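re: ur question from yesterday

yeah so i grabbed the chain u mentioned. its 317 aa long if i counted rite. heres the sequnce exactly as i have it in my notes:
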Amino acid sequence: MLRGPLHEDGYRPKLSGHETFPLRYGWLKKAFDAVSTGGVDGEGRSVFLSEDAIARFGVGRNMVASMRHWAVAAGVIEEVGRKPTPTELGRRLFTDDGLDPYMEVPTTTWLVHWRLCGNPQNTTWFWAFGHYPATTFVRDALTGGIEKLAKDREWPRAAHTTIGNDVKCFVRSYVRRPASSKASYEDALESPLTELGLIRSAGSRDSFRFIRGRKPTLGTGVFALAVSEFWAEYSTAGTLSFEALAHEPGSPGRVFLLDEDSLADRLLRIEDDTLGAYRWSETAGLKQLIRTRTLDANEVLDLIKQDYVSSGREEAA
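ran it thru and got these structure tokens back, copy pasting raw so excuse formatting
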């Protein structure tokens, strides 16, 4: 049976907005700083649409649009009535005295990855990590899978070229490009997401492989946050099965490409990581998390602080 948010009636896909540019270093901080001063210019236009946007951000018009897209997609800013404003996550990370304003700690990149690939509003990212059934793939296979889903669900404006460009940007976001003397400086810059090592070339030019395993740089705080956010969207029940955490679309197991043993090891420790809010249970062969209390939105974000403390950075106020 088809399941997950992408198959729900009324789902609206998002297959563009990045202008084919992957996320780049410094973009989230620049976008956050720009909207932190009010988000609009003197005439009430978004800072991303103002006449001086190119000078403000130091990139071309299309890259300004891409920067805006990634900041929204990663949950660093939000747009209410088309006015961009910082989110609480953005404030915690990207203020000058924030947890990691320049993305120097792997925790921040893992958190961005989670917000991109655990969010069904980012269609290709969510589908690739949450639905694609194989370990290896070629770009055409991802494109074809999303096209079939678009046709089955009768999504509007889901043209082959649009989906293909989205898939191309997705791959470039995670796979390091081979060195080339012909590449421009801008083109040679890697996306910070390549550092996670989640997708690698499988030998040929257009063959790639998802890398499943332990993920030693994935902090316990980001993992606990992901469990909390997935649970809130998936079920209102006070228990959550291991099967759901490992295999449901948008689950931590799928988004972080954790094998079952690695996922189980993390769940065994989650009671300490959440100060008792969640407890792992294996009774009568039933593996599940038990929620002893519900964490509010600020408490969920507080979970990530432990990762920055353990990385050697001082805890932000």
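noticed a couple things. The chain is about 45% helix and 10% strand. also The mean pLDDT is 92.
anyway ttyl
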